Amino acid sequence: MALKTKTSTRIGVTILGWGIALWLFFPIFWMILTSFKSEVQAISTPPKLFFMPTLSSYAEVFERANYWHFALNTVIVSVGATAIAIALAVPAAYSMAFMPSKRTRGTLLWVLSTRMLPPVGVLVPIYILARNTHLLDTCTGLAIVDMLTNLPIIVWMLYTFFREVPAPILEAGRMDGATRWQEMTMVLLPLALPGIASTALLSLILCWNEAFWSLNLTSSHAAPLTAFIASFSSPEGLFFGKLSAASTLAVAPILVFGWISQKQLVRGLTFGAVK
Amino acid sequence: MATVELKNLRKTYLTEEIIKGISLSIEEREFVVFVGPSGCGKSTLLRMIAGLEDITSGDLLIDGQRVNDVEPGKRGLAMVFQSYALYPHMNVYKNMEFGLKLSGMPEAERRAKIEHVARTLQLEPYLNHKPGQLSGGQRQRVAIGRAIVRNPKVFLFDEPLSNLDAALRGQMRVELSALHRKLGATTIYVTHDQVEAMTMADKIVVLQKGIVEQIGSPLELYHHPRNLFVARFIGSPPMNFFSAIFQGGDAAGSSVQLRDGSSLYVPVTSPGLLPGTKVTVGIRPEHVELASSGPNSGVVEVIERLGAITLVHVRMPDGEIIVVQTDGAVLTDVDTRVSLTLPPRNCHLFAPDGLAFEACHRHPLAA
Ligand SMILES: Nc1ncnc2c1ncn2[C@@H]1O[C@H](COP(=O)(O)OP(=O)(O)OP(=O)(O)O)[C@@H](O)[C@H]1O
Ligand SMILES: [Mg+2]
Q1: To the nearest whole angstrom, how far is the Cα of B253 from the nearest Cα of chain A?
Q2: In angstroms, what separates the C-alpha of B146 from chain A's closest C-alpha?
Q3: End-to-end CA distance of chain A
Q4: According to the model, what pLDDT value does residue A268 have?
Q5: Is B23's Cβ below 8 Å from some Cβ in A?
Q6: Which of B42, B81, B188, B207 has most ligand 1 atoms within 8 Å of its beta carbon, as the pocket-test mutant?
Q7: What pLDDT is recorded for position A272?
Q8: Is this complex's ipTM strictly greater than 0.95?
């Protein structure tokens, strides 16, 4: 009897899991589907699930805009922002995790609170700062802003991962003659690598899909893929086929990358059994 | 080999003083054990010596050099942690090599050293294993090996055996003692295990609440505890205590009146107390003798038979329990009436402030 209930619970959980997964995946699925429709099919009611796929939207998208230019900007900005953010966050998280003071908790909360501010609230000052430092419409400028917006989350995640590393292991390194730098690079980083990798991946995804600052701080030269998508939601009317094709092209690389590294990501997020 | 000297060391966390002025000197080759109840500051003191905690005030000298501000890795110490703290991402060989590599020792020399130590500790078959693949005892050995290869001036141990089971702990205890004899390195060892402290130490430092209660050889602490705290802390099962009235003393001893009116003449010098003062008498369970009749009688309440010895808990008329350690084959049973003999030479007297009366004769083994 008990076994039976257990089985039915498991079936329920499985169905629920699949339900949520499908619900989350549906928009992406529909977007990809729409990208292979003609503009007429794309807006037909009722929506069609089965149709003759066409690459016409893709052809037009490639014709109208230089996809590679946008993609390169996105790669530069996300990788750059992530690399700098990790480089800054590692020492910060290290000191908070292993040398906490009475102000550490407060600092952590304060760091996170900056994420709670709506970006539009600082749009004007950031815009003026970027303009005055000649960083408008540059990858550097966008990368710096992206880096700063993600830094709080990255510090938090790294802090959590570092806390999992038993302090005596680092102290053993110090007793063995390691400097703080060697302790961090030769003992802590290898141990926290899965955590750092999943943090970096998250940061990459956030930067990749970041639209607010991209649209406000870039126009042509440094415009990333989110601007590429936006350029297809034109005022003269929405063309869902092309919009979907552009969006699919924009998210495809990060989707594939995320898929490949999902093992790493899961390992990072369930990291803990170090000892 | 090195000497270590602590001069009035203090440690304050925020506002709370944890180590309250500890002075101690440790000779070359000496094996010093820190004992004390949980939270008394043993680990903190050890970590201050290691350099893992800042010293708030006072001086720490190694080989006569003040090292308060020297990096942990440059003090010439090696530490074995309670949790072993092996590098999980490195195999046994790399674990032992890490410190040597950082110190810039050439590869061939490192290899020779590690192989030698691995042989001593029977770790050769495991050199390529990661710590996660080893048993607790093997990890402990690796941690010790990692300390030995660096050829430190001083070894520091923080409860290194407390994660092992009883049998393995006994075995490692003997091995550590043998190793110490062989290497002859100055060693500071923190434990709360009586047996480890008594068997391994040349010198025991008893700590309580950040101060030193007594420093001495194991038998010195056993035979001549300086105060009630040490008397209660050293020895297992712990010493029995009961109150008595001080009657007076001379050069050869002091006399006290017990609760039942009998008097006891103990060979300790009285520190100028007024007759009539309430004092505490202490006697270890292994020194009380059982008699079937006589004064000091009570009723047996519990009997613990451990095989070789028996612990008899006797309820005295005034309600106090006195534990007697006696022969394993003793026939006494629960609820029978027994008499206790208290050999005066094995009794200790403590003044109201807890300090022990000084013995007229030092025990030959605790000179
Ligand atoms: N980082 C810290 N901040 C504040 N107080 C601390 C800190 N570390 C230790 N203490 C305090 O210092 C005191 C001594 O701690 P310590 O770890 O040295 O005790 P211990 O004698 O080693 O105990 P145990 O036998 O349980 O290991 C304790 O009261 C503890 O609460
Ligand atoms: Mg401790």
Answers
A1: 52
A2: 9
A3: 40
A4: 61
A5: no
A6: B42
A7: 43
A8: no
Entry pTM? 0.84
Residue B11 CA to residue B20 CA, distance in Å, equals 7
CB contact under 8 Å between A172 and B87, yes or no, is yes
pLDDT of residue A230: 87
Can you tell me the distance from the alpha carbon of B240 to that of B285, in angstroms, rounded to the nearest whole number? 7
Residues A222 and A118 in one domain: yes
> Could you tell me how many residues make up chain B?
367
Contact indicator for B139, B84 with CB cutoff of 8 Å: yes
Indicate if A86 and A211 belong to the same structural domain. yes
Q: Which of residues 177-206 of A touch B (CB under 8 A)?
A: 177-179, 182, 186-187, 190-191
Q: Is B93 helix (H, G, I), strand (E, B) or coil?
A: helix
Same domain, A149 and A117: yes
What's the B40 CA to ligand 2 centre distance in angstroms?
A: 8
Contacts of residue A274 in chain B, CB cutoff 8 Å?
88
Number of Cβ within 10 Å of residue B317's Cβ equals: 11
Q: What is the pLDDT of residues A103-116, one digit of tens each?
A: 999 999 998 888 88
Asked if the Cβ–Cβ distance from B102 to A182 is below 8 Å, we say yes
- Show which of A231, A248, A263 is a domain's final residue: A231
Cα B180 to middle of ligand 2, angstroms: 22
Does the pLDDT at position A34 exceed 60?
yes
Ligand 1 atom index nearest CA of B82: 27
pLDDT of residue A275: 37
Residues A16 and A103 in one domain: no
Match 């490639």 to its residue by tokens.
Answer: A62
List, for residues A227-248, the tens digit of each pLDDT value: 888 888 776 667 888 889 999 9
Q: What is the pLDDT of residue B293?
A: 81
The per-residue pLDDT for B366 is: 84
Q: Decide if A217 is inside a domain.
A: yes
* Record: contact B85-A182, CB cut-off 8 A: no
Query: A84 and A125 share a domain?
Result: yes
CA nearest ligand 1 atom 28, residue: B39
**Which phi and psi angles does B156 have, rounded to 5°?**
-120, 130
Q: Among the residues of chain A, which ranges form H helices?
A: 2-35, 39-43, 56-64, 67-98, 104-116, 123-132, 139-163, 167-175, 180-182, 189-208, 212-217, 225-230, 240-260, 262-269
The mean per-residue pLDDT over the stretch B212-227 comes to 96
Domains of chain B, CATH where assigned:
4-231 (3.40.50.300), 237-366 (2.40.50.140)
Domain residues for the domain of A87 are 67-231
Residue A266 lies in a domain: no
Question: Under an 8 A CB cutoff, do B52 and A187 touch?
Answer: no
Count of domains observed in chain A: 2
The alpha-carbon radius of gyration of chain B (Å, integer) is 24
CA of residue A162 to ligand 2 center, whole Å: 23
Residue nearest atom 29 of ligand 1, based on CA coordinates: B39
